[in-house]
Write a sequence for this structure.
C-alpha cells in the first residue's frame, strides 16, 4: 500500500552562528547517547533481570529485539525525515524511545521485556539517523567534520560509561532504573530540540511513501539477523530453520530490490549505489561496525577470564580503545574541515584498524594489560579515523535533498555490521573454546559456562586449561576480524577525492 503526502524540499537558509549550532548539538548528543547507551547499560544488569524474571533461554532476544528493531526502522525514519521534515520526525522518534523505555522498566516477564525492547529499538533507529541528517541540514559539508566529530565522541562515552552505569544502578537501586534513567534525559533532549532547532524552510510537491519496500526490507533484515544469531549456536548451519531463514532473506531482499526499481520514492534508493564513493563508504561503515562491536564484546572476555580483571575494571580497561577513537574522531573532523581532504585519512584508518585486530589476535595467556592497551590504541585510532569521515563521504556523494536517506543507509549498514559481527564472531569464539577444552582439560566437559569468579575457584591445571581455551577463541575472533577488515583497505582505496561542498546545494 502506498500513501500520498507532501514532500518537503530544502530551501536555502542563512548561515548559522556557532552558538546556535552548539545549542542544537546538545540536544542531538543527548539523543544519540540514549540510543547508544541503552544496550550497554542493560548488559551488566542482565544477570539480575534474568534472575528476577526468569527465561534464561530467551536472554539473547533481549538484545536481538532491540538491535533488529533499530536496523529495520533506520531507513524508514530517514525517509520520513526527508518527506515530513526532520525536526518533527526526530522528536517523534525520541517519544517512541521514551515510551519503550518506560514500558520496559515496568515489564513483569521476559515476553513483555523483549516486546518493549523492540519498541525502544524502533525509536533508537530514528535517533541515530535523525541526528546525523539534522547536522547535514544545519552545516555545510566543508564545516561538518567538526560537528560530526563531536557526535562521535558520544560513542566512546557510551561504551565506557554504559557498563559502569548499568552495574551501579543495578547494585544500588534496581535493574529497572537502567531503563528509567532514559526518561529525564529524553525529556531534556525533547525540550532542547523543540526550543532551539530551526531548520531550513521547505516547499512541497506530491510524492508516494514506499510502505511495501519498507516491509520487504524489514523482513529481509529480520531474517538475516536471526540467521546470524541462531546459526551455529541454537541450530546447526545446515539445519532446516537456518536454511529456511536463508531462503527468506534472499527472497525478501530480492523482492525489495525489484520494488525499489519501480517506485517513485523508494525507501532506500538503489540509485545511490551508482556512486562509487557512496558504495565504498557504506562498505567501510559496515566493516567499522563489525570491528567495533566485535572488539567491545570479546575483549572483556579475555580481560576478565584470562587477565583476572573484574567486571567494573574491565570496562575501565577499554579506555585505551575508546580514547583512541575519541581523539582521532575529533582531530580527524577538524582536519577534514580545514583541508577538505579525506581519502588519505580513510586509507590510514583502514590500515590501522586491520593492524589493531591482527595485533589483538597475537595475545596469549601471558599477555599483560599494558600490551593489550597498546594494541587497543592502534585499533581505536583506526576506527576513529573511519567513523565520521565515512559519513561525510556518504553525504558528499548525494544531493542535499537525499542526505537523510543516504545517512540512514550508512547508519543501517553500521548497525547491521555490528549485529552480524557479534553473531558470527560469537559463533566462532564458542566453537573454538568448546573444541579446545577437551584437548587441554583432559576431557573436562565444555558445556557448562563459568563466571570469572567460578573460574578462579577451579584447581590450577583446570583453570589454566580454560584460560588457554578462551585465549584460543579470542585468537580466532580477532584473526577472523582482521581478515575481513582487509576488505576495508580495498574499499578505502576505491574512494576518489571529491571536494567537500562548501554550501548547501540541492
Amino acid at each position: 500500500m502506498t500513501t500520498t503526502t507532501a514532500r518537503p524540499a530544502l530551501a536555502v537558509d542563512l548561515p548559522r552562528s556557532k552558538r546556535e549550532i552548539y545549542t542544537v548539538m546538545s540536544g542531538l548528543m543527548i539523543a544519540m547517547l540514549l540510543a547508544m547507551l541503552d544496550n550497554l547499560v542493560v548488559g551488566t544488569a542482565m544477570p539480575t533481570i534474568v534472575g528476577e524474571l526468569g527465561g534464561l533461554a530467551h536472554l539473547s532476544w533481549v538484545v536481538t529485539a532491540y538491535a533488529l528493531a533499530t536496523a529495520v526502522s533506520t531507513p524508514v525514519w530517514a525517509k520520513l525525515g526527508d518527506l515530513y521534515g526532520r525536526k518533527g520526525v526526530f522528536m517523534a522518534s525520541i517519544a517512541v524511545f521514551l515510551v519503550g523505555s518506560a514500558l520496559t522498566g515496568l515489564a513483569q516477564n521476559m515476553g513483555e521485556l523483549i516486546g518493549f525492547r523492540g519498541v525502544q529499538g524502533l525509536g533508537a533507529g530514528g535517533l541515530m539517523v535523525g541526528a546525523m541528517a539534522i547536522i547535514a541540514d544545519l552545516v555545510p559539508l566543508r564545516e561538518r567534520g567538526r560537528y560530526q566529530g563531536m557526535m562521535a565522541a558520544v560513542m566512546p562515552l557510551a561504551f565506557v560509561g554504559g557498563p559502569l552505569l548499568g552495574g551501579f544502578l543495578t547494585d544500588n537501586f534496581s535493574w529497572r532504573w537502567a531503563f528509567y534513567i532514559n526518561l529525564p534525559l529524553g525529556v531534556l533532549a525533547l525540550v532542547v530540540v523543540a526550543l532551539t532547532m530551526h531548520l531550513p524552510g521547505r516547499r512541497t510537491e506530491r510524492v508516494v511513501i514506499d510502505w511495501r519496500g519498507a516491509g520487504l526490507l524489514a523482513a529481509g533484515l529480520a531474517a538475516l539477523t536471526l540467521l546470524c544469531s541462531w546459526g551455529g549456536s541454537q541450530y546447526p548451519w545446515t539445519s532446516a530453520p537456518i536454511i529456511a531463514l536463508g531462503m527468506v532473506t534472499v527472497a525478501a531482499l530480492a523482492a525489495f530490490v525489484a520494488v525499489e526499481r519501480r517506485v517513485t520514492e523508494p525507501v532506500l534508493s538503489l540509485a545511490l549505489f551508482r556512486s562509487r564513493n557512496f558504495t565504498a563508504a557504506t562498505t567501510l561503515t559496515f566493516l567499522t561496525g563489525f570491528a567495533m562491536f566485535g572488539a567491545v564484546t570479546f575483549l572483556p572476555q579475555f580481560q576478565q577470564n584470562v587477565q583476572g580483571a573484574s567486571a567494573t575494571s574491565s570496562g575501565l580497561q577499554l579506555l585505551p580503545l575508546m580514547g583512541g577513537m575519541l581523539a582521532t574522531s575529533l582531530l580527524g573532523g577538524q582536519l577534514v574541515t580545514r583541508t577538505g581532504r579525506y581519502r588519505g585519512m580513510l586509507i590510514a584508518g583502514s590500515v590501522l584498524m586491520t593492524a589493531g585486530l591482527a595485533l589483538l589476535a597475537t595475545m596469549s595467556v601471558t599477555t599483560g594489560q599494558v600490551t593489550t592497551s597498546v594494541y587497543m590504541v592502534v585499533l581505536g585510532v583506526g576506527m576513529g579515523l573511519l567513523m565520521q569521515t565515512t559519513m561525510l563521504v556518504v553525504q558528499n556523494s548525494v544531493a542535499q535533498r537525499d542526505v537523510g536517506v543516504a545517512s540512514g543507509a550508512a547508519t543501517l549498514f553500521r548497525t547491521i555490521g555490528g549485529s552480524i559481527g557479534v553473531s558470527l564472531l560469537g559463533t566462532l569464539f564458542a566453537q573454538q573454546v568448546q573444541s579446545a577444552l577437551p584437548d587441554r582439560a583432559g576431557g573436562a566437559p565444555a558445556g557448562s559456562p563459568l563466571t570469572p569468579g567460578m573460574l578462579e575457584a577451579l584447581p590450577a591445571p583446570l583453570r589454566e586449561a580454560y584460560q588457554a581455551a578462551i585465549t584460543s577463541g579470542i585468537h580466532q575472533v580477532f584473526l577472523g576480524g582482521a581478515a575481513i577488515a582487509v576488505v576495508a583497505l580495498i574499499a578505502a582505496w576505491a574512494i576518489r577525492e571529491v571536494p567537500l561542498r562548501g554550501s548547501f546545494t540541492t
